[in-house]
Amino acid sequence: MGRRPNYHKEYQELNKEKIKEYGKQYRLKNKEKILEQQGKYRKENRDKVNEYYRNYTKQNKKHISKRNRERDYDIKKQLINEMGGKCVCCGLTSWWILTLDHIKPVKKQRRGQYRTFILKLLNNPNMRKDFQVMCYGCNNSKNIGDKCLIH
């Protein structure tokens, strides 16, 4: 008498949750070991890993852009809420129209540095004293003159 055909598949289907929980517990218990193995694999197979990420990025460009945009919006919302959540000039509270205004003018930053800059402000409250929350209209008006021309 031999084993039943497809026994392994049947067992997996009947015990999905049990197997899933075991895997979760194993990963928690062996986190350092797993990270070490992953690092070793990446180091030994650098070209293969880089090729995988290049292909993944090409195939999932829209998804990655959407995820990054949503993350950036969440970070911006959190920072704006921590800095008062409304325009200091007119009191507007719609976060997507609110911007960060330099109280003292500084040279323009390159676009690629914006996320890093926002994270620095979020993590370092002392840096925030040189900035204020303003709506797009008030900020543009202030940029034309010394103060907001709208209000």
Describe, in plain words, how this protein is organized in 3D:
- The chain is mainly α and 151 residues long.
- The chain has two domains: 7-59, no CATH class; 62-144, no CATH class.
- 60% of the residues lie in helices and 7% in strands.
- The protein has a two-stranded antiparallel sheet.
- The longest helix has 22 residues, at 61-82.
- The mean pLDDT is 86.
Secondary structure elements and pairings:
Layout: H1 7-14, H2 16-29, H3 31-44, H4 46-59, H5 61-82, E1 98-102, H6 114-123, E2 131-135, H7 136-144
Helix pairs in contact: 5-6
**Beta-strand residue fraction:** 5-15%
Gyration radius from CA atoms, angstroms: 25 Å
Structural class: mainly alpha
Rough outline = elongated
Helix content: 55-70%
Largest sheet: 2 strands, antiparallel
